[in-house]
Amino acid sequence: MQYESLDLWQRSCELSTTVYKSLASLKDYGFKDQITRSCLSVPSNVAEGLERYTPQEKFRFLTIAKGSLGEFKTQTYVGMKVGYISKESGDAWLKESEEISKMLGGFMKYLKTKTTS
């Protein structure tokens, strides 16, 4: 399975790209670094997991990606509250990250059934 062909990977890459571009001029480098890293961690861990050999390894990296989505969502909420992220952008990011999270959850369930069958 090529991770590049997965809608999950493509959408998480697109979200990460959008976040990087949107926050390019933000001067709070600590916040910008943290939110861009958490968002970038999602497609990166999907890719790394799918390059692994066993379903258990794949599952482990997808779990990390799912955790990074939670981190990203929290940072988006905070960024909106302090005025770094517009409501429109933040709401769109939160909606997309929720959909990506559901996709990850479904893929993880699929991998779990492969390990128990």
From TrEMBL:
Domain of life: Bacteria
Pfam families according to UniProt: 23S_rRNA_IVP
Protein name (record): Four helix bundle protein
Source lineage: Bacteria, Pseudomonadati, Pseudomonadota, Gammaproteobacteria, Alteromonadales
